[in-house]
Amino acid sequence: MSAARVLVVEDEEDIAFPLVRTLEREGYDVTWVDSGEKALDELRTNAAEVVILDLGLPDMDGLEVCRKARELAFEGAIMIVTARAGELDRVVGLDYGADDYLAKPFGLAELQARVRALLRRTHTGPTPVVAVDGLRMDAGARRVFYREAEVPLTGKEFDVLEVLLTNRDKVVSRDKLMADVWDENWYGSTKTLDVTIGRLRQKLEQVKVPERVVAVRGVGFRLEGSGHDV
């Protein structure tokens, strides 16, 4: 199996160099760029499984890079690394399509653990296609379709839907969703789950998927064909 490819987008050399060396020692194929435009150019021509993205870039905000990467149909994982540690920035970053968020300063061991967790979610082996009422989820290809239309989901949106679809018509607790979709290294607010659920709902509604993500107040969420929030 070829080495997983990681794109590091960081304009500060004193941060980028040790980060690149650490990832290369882990066996990853690492490319480093120092601007948002270079990152987008790289993603247009070369596949990457994980992007480590600094927000404070010299030419554009990292959130804009994140948004444009998703518009380019980049399906890999995006981990934001930033000195902006506020919860609002965290939620906004996830709303732009990021999968994880790490505040500076951070330990290299923690970053390595986060990268491994993201890669576990993008290297799952093929599984049978799950189909419910015209909604098809191909876990191997990590793609979702409703009838003939593809539902463009980020990594975390896909993972949340997979858990809910596997447990269709059953309530899935917030704790289980956080444990299954994020990992033991996630120390952020559970509001990140609400942000992801909100985006997922919107995307399903846009293509008129009859399945609804229903909130069960104080417990969690349920995927069902019809019904009202509890």
Automatic annotation (TrEMBL):
Ranges of residues in domain OmpR/PhoB-type: 127-225
PROSITE patterns noted in UniProt: OMPR_PHOB (PS51755), RESPONSE_REGULATORY (PS50110)
Superkingdom to which the source organism belongs: Bacteria
Gene3D superfamilies cross-referenced by the UniProt entry: 3.40.50.2300, 6.10.250.690, Winged helix-like DNA-binding domain superfamily/Winged helix DNA-binding domain
A Pfam family reported for this protein in Swiss-Prot or TrEMBL: Trans_reg_C
Gene behind the chain: regX3_2
DNA-binding region: 127-225
Name of protein: Sensory transduction protein regX3
PANTHER family, alphabetized: PHOSPHATE REGULON TRANSCRIPTIONAL REGULATORY PROTEIN PHOB, REGULATOR OF RPOS
Natural source organism: Nocardioides aquaticus
Record keywords, A-Z: DNA-binding, Phosphoprotein, Two-component regulatory system
Domain Response regulatory: 5-119
Residues where 4-aspartylphosphate is found: D54
